[in-house]
Amino acid sequence: MMISTKGRYALRLMLDIALHSSGEPVRIREIASRQMISDKYLEQIVSVLNKAGFLKSIRGPQGGYKLTRDPGEYTVGMILRLTEGSLAPVACLEDEVNQCERQDDCVTLILWKKLDDAIKGVVDHVTLADLMEWQLGKSGSYSI
User: Fold this and answer.
1) Up-side HSE of residue 9: CA atoms within 13 Å toward CB?
2) CB burial class (10 A; 0-12, 13-18, 19+) of residue 39?
């Protein structure tokens, strides 16, 4: 499993908004400049996050984007699943019920389940607030 640029940038965008939001909306142009990402690409990602209710759009000259919840309420898994879809390492683990006809005889399924559990154990327990804390502890500043 490899996280695409869309997933990585969505996480960076959410973290940037969380770090730079002092009650005021954060502008895409500012995020793009700090993150060195095309503002056009960020607009596509913002659209997905906005439709999902993760961000709130504020229009006007002082407009931009704000988180709709506290950073501690967003997990990395929520953000990545929204942009990436399933995070399962193999197709047979993507659905709630494994549909694979070989599952009873597939010894490698044990490995894939362990890997899937490990991935979920990390991404579903690390929050945006955790990332903020790690960033601030690492550099003492807002640079990400």
Assistant:
1) 22
2) middle
In sequence order, what E strands does 11-116 have? Answer: 55-58, 64-67
* Tens digit of each residue's pLDDT (9 = 90 or more) over 47-79: 999 999 999 999 988 889 999 999 999 999 999
Strand (E) or helix (H) holding 82? helix 76-84
Q: In a 10 Å sphere around its CB, with 0-12 CB exposed, 13-18 middle and 19+ buried, how is residue 26 labelled? A: buried
Nearest to 9 by CA among 33, 61, 45: 45
Length, in residues, of the chain: 144
Distance, in Å, from the CA atom of 99 to the CA atom of 126, rounded to the nearest integer, reads 30
User: Could you tell me the pTM of the whole model?
Assistant: 0.88
